[in-house]
Amino acid sequence: MRQLEVTFDLDRLEGYALDAELERAELARPGIKLLPRDPAAASLVVAFTTFPGLVARFGRWFVDAFPACGCDACGEIADGEIARLARMVDALIAGRFRETLWIPNGAEGWQAATFWFATKSCSQRTRLERTRAQQMLASTA
Fold first, then answer.
1. Alpha carbon distance, N-terminus to C-terminus of the chain
2. In this structure, what are the phi and psi dihedrals at residue 54, rounded to the nearest 5 degrees?
3. Where are the beta strands (DSSP E) in 30-120?
4. Which of 34, 45, 39, 50 has the alpha carbon at shortest distance from 2?
5. What is the pLDDT of residues 50-62, one digit of tens each?
6. What is the pLDDT of residues 74-123, one digit of tens each?
7. Which of 9, 13, 26, 119 would disulfide-bridge 33, Cβ 3.0–4.6 Å?
8. DSSP strand pairing (31-36 vs 44-48)
9. Average pLDDT, the chain
10. Where are the alpha helices (DSSP H) in the chain?
């Protein structure tokens, strides 16, 4: 995180109450929010939880946990999760991340996020209850 601060034009906030959704889990320490000064760039928020370890928000809506599950059966290892987080942060800061949120007329909402990496891309699309999607859109106004 410190290297990002030195390399990019951004503001760093550290503390509690940076992201209510991420902080629903028990926190191990204060979170960090990196806000680029360029309004076209996406922000990054990291909440350090007691379990699963950390939760990150990329941009406005995309949230992922590291490790994703944390159970022994999934076999996630620290080195693999560190590498996954680093790839996602690299894509974010290089402008290779996009997210959308839309609500078709009279239908449920949809959230989508895509990361582009050197050799592949990774996309996720999630259906949302209409009221939840409306709340998410309203929170960015």
1. 27
2. -155, 155
3. 31-36, 44-48, 54-58, 62-66, 97-102, 109-116
4. 34
5. 886 899 999 999 9
6. 888 889 999 999 999 999 988 999 999 999 988 899 999 999 998 999 99
7. 13
8. antiparallel
9. 89
10. 2-7, 78-93, 130-138
